[in-house]
Design goal:
Elements lengths: L2 H5 L2 E3 H12 L5 H9 L6 E8 L1 E7 L9 E4 L8 E6 L8 E3 L5 E3 L5 E3 L5 E5 L8 E6 H24 L5 H26 L17 H9 L8 H14 L7
Antiparallel strand pairs: 1-10, 2-5, 2-10, 3-4, 3-9, 6-7, 8-9
């Protein structure tokens, strides 16, 4: 896990996509993140770099079953508008979509955002983000999303290690690729848990163990997945593919 990511409050979509590409091994684009956001799978935020016209309101109980919720708007728009980072607000049914330009767009009056005050929301007066704003992903959200992906991968690898294939022939055909993938993912996950960035491993201090030794000590306990030899081979594959850099 990148030490810088722990200290940055948010990342641009480009940086978030690049980070997930490196950590998951899957090519992730900004468009992917926007789609995940609209589908409610990834919380996204907007950073307003200049004061932007907006209206504030309070969510109140609906007076009819026909309405899921009602926002009672303040009598006057906010004097200066809004500035800073605000989480995009999704409602059900969703009031946002991806338009033909690939932008997040409101289906009604304007994009809505949550505030730090419970049940208080703000709505900008445009259907898409203005020029003085851009989408970001908060670092805490990105790390939680990465951990969720990692838990799914580890569960798949656990299932693999516990599954007995019917014949030794099918095992010899299926095991190298699947087992190797699981080994590599476990190494990357453990490095991040230990506080290392796999793509920027520090040099091993004289007289002390380095990142590789630290990871090896933990992973050799996984008798179902690792031996000394298989750990070294998996480490070598990760270094050759560029997933592990530094640490020599």
């Amino acid at each position: 896990m990148s030490w810088l990511l722990k200290r940055k409050p948010w990342l641009t979509l480009a940086d978030a996509a690049a980070y997930l590409t490196g950590s998951t091994g899957e090519y992730v684009t900004e468009a992917d993140l926007l789609l995940l956001a609209v589908e409610g799978q990834l919380k996204i935020a907007a950073r307003f770099t200049d004061w932007t016209a907006a209206i504030a309101g309070t969510v109140i109980e609906p007076y009819s079953d026909f309405f899921r919720e009602i926002i009672e708007e303040d009598a006057q728009p906010l004097p200066h508008g809004i500035e800073g980072v605000f989480d995009l607000r999704l409602t059900t049914p969703s009031m946002v979509r991806l338009n033909l330009k690939g932008e997040i767009e409101s289906r009604a009056f304007g994009l809505e955002f949550n505030t730090a005050i419970p049940d208080r929301v703000v709505r900008i007066t445009t259907l898409t983000l203005p020029a003085a704003a851009h989408w970001v992903v908060k670092s805490t959200v990105l790390l939680e999303f990465e951990a969720e992906i990692g838990s799914v991968t580890r569960q798949q690898c656990k299932i693999f290690s516990e599954t007995s294939l019917e014949t030794s022939e099918s095992r010899s055909e299926a095991q190298p690729k699947s087992r190797g993938y699981c080994q590599e993912q476990e190494i990357l996950a453990v490095l991040r848990q230990l506080g290392y960035d796999p793509k920027a491993l520090p040099l091993r201090p004289a007289g002390h163990s380095g990142a590789k030794a630290d990871a090896r000590d933990l992973l050799l306990a996984r008798k179902d997945l690792f031996t000394d030899s298989s750990f070294d081979k998996a480490w070598g594959r990760l270094r050759a593919s560029g997933e592990i850099i530094g640490g020599k």
